[in-house]
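tool_call: predict_structure(chain=1)
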Amino acid sequence: MFKNYILTTFRSLRNKPTYSLLNITGLALGIACATLIFLWVEDELTWDHEVANRNQIYWTRLNMPYNGKITSYDGVPGPLAPEAIKTIPGIRYAIRVTNGERQLFTIGDKVLYENGTFADSSYFDLLRIPFLKGSRVGCLRLKHSIVLTQSTARKFFGDAEPIGKTLRMNNTINYTVTGVVADFPNNRTLQFNWLAAWDDYTDVQQWLTNWGSFGRPAIFELEPGANPDIVAQKLTALIRSRDKTFAKTDMLLWSMNDWHLYDNYTNGKPDGGAIKFVKLFSLIASIILLIACINFMNLSTARAGQRAREVGVRKTLGALKRSLISRFISESLLLSFFSVALAIVLVYLTLPLFNDLVARELVFHPLAPAHLAGLLAIGLSCGLLSGSYPAFYLSSFNPIAVLKGLKLRTKGSAGFIRRTLVTTQFVVSVALIICTVIIYQQVQHIKDRDLGFEKQNLLYLDVQGKMAEHYDAIRDHLMASGALDNVALSLSPPLQMWSGTDNQHLVWEGDDLNSTEFINQELVSPGYIATMGLKIKEGHDFYPNAKVDSNSILINESLATLMGKAGKVGNRVTTGQGSTPLTIVGIVRNFVFNDMYGKPTPLVMVCDPKNFTYCHSLDMRLKPGANASAAIAKITAVIKADNPGYPVEVKFADSEFNQRFTDETRIGKLAGLFAILAISISCLGLFGLAAYTAEQRTKELGIRKVLGASVPGLAGLLSREFLALVTLSCLIAFPLAWWAMDSWLGNYAYRTAIHWWVFATAGLGALTIALLTVSFQALKAALANPVKTLRSE
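tool_result:
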């Protein structure tokens, strides 16, 4: 029997190749699109899953109240982890890690930058990382020892044995390779190319030994059965007792299961993160699959007329309704799995492009158990969903009526269902188009906003070696090159402010010490204001001689507003009892840093030459109209001459700015791609419905033509119904898209307006596409010879 179903299906495909191609292609596009999205979803949902004990691993978070709100930090004081494991029961391992360190390594004549981590010796025990070479026992307890991943070891030493070999870090310290581990999968939070001992890090960053500092992350593994809430309470009591900075601080333990998907904290509580994109794109994948199934239903019912006599003959010969339903569903399932086969080919062809779009390295293995089960589930669900309605519809034909050649009388609900399905398709398509445009507008709105500084022609590079110590000479040589207008040092690179304090430590007259306000602080050299293109609102800039301003500060408008009457030029602030007062010499207009979407937070800038060695960024402004390539060549020559032994990597602030919008840009591109796919598949369904309608009204059109109706009039008659459906779709899609985008834009302090013309353009575009789709069938029906259409035999 099944063989008979296959033969019937192939015969049906051969008899109507156009409809068959539309059927299979429409489903294949939907399945391929959904498969790509679900591959990405699988990657997101399995983040960190290769860590077997992930249910016991937690990242510490620090909640601090500022200005009536709670801000969460992942950096904690350096002494917290070792003290916690000694005094708090239930903690099995406690490690400190850096957030990622980019260091220079020299091996012979090779000079390479590599990202890595400094961590405590329990790192490998906590994460159960097996060694390919060497042993984890005691490896990080030895200072100046280093562990490499397999690919990094190969990059450094080729095929030679790496164990015992020496690497020189930052041209200062030699590190001995004591172990090699396998490369980590991309969907893992904690990974490195190299790993060195925590003590090596604190030798340079000695401030991390202070209980009053915001240090680096701490990660705990709890004993099985330990209550993370109780451990967090004890951590809170511990940190509050050690420094008044944390008198109102609460500690949280953030489960490894949530690190990737629930990484956003608002007012001290988790409120989602990447999980919202997983849910969004899972919904979109399901909708596209549904649209593809809707398209199949419409095309199947459009062919019902040609199969009516077949149904009549089969019923006359004794076929039962359930056997007909079984037959048609079997055909639907076969077509669905043909579509799955084509979809697999499409996925292989498009996966490299999709990987570029989502910045991942997804791999598709159709025979892998999870992927095979997914494909089978998609094939079965699509076949059953898309074939059920046509099967029941076709099997319900009256055999006497169809064999007499009478017009099939379908229930009123059948036409309603088909129209509802097409309307649903275009509602989704129009809404996706609108959302795509508004997401693009929001990104452009933020990019085009007044940043308060000039990002064009602003360059910077990382301070390395002796650059800070030799800054005066380097600055003079750079200015003498003729390529630059200004040069300055700063603690943080442009767009970022790394350091911060609060009004408990930066005190002014009239300060409300009962409230805690977060204040960014930045160490800068003279010339920073001009280099960044900032504007002085009141007072003056730092003087060229940095020593003159060692007790002077500049503040921004936000801090001046916070300080009230004390935020005036000439007033003073102190950094603690017995400290030298600092005088406000200027107020800088607000400029954007850290959060590109938010309002500038309070900021104080200090110019103290004794601390310039802590600066990490050399900031430079090109002369207007200067050739960037030639200027970079001159900068490189100066830096290599004055600071030999370090590669020079000049960065552009405007490029860094654009990278801040990677997620939004990617979402916009994906939404646009899905909108194109959705409306393409929807048009296939509309084409099928137009064909069905033209077939049902063939004799009516023939009569109208005999009575003098024109071809344009007949084409318009058929098209009018579909344009009404698309218009209804727009009326439904407009408020849905507005609600979705208004909710999304509500997350941004600076947001674009939702313009009416976006909706009008999307609606007109949908109507135009629908008209072009329908017009082919409408003109074909209108141009048909009425003599042939009115024949009764």
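agent: The chain has a mean pLDDT of 83. Proceeding to next step.
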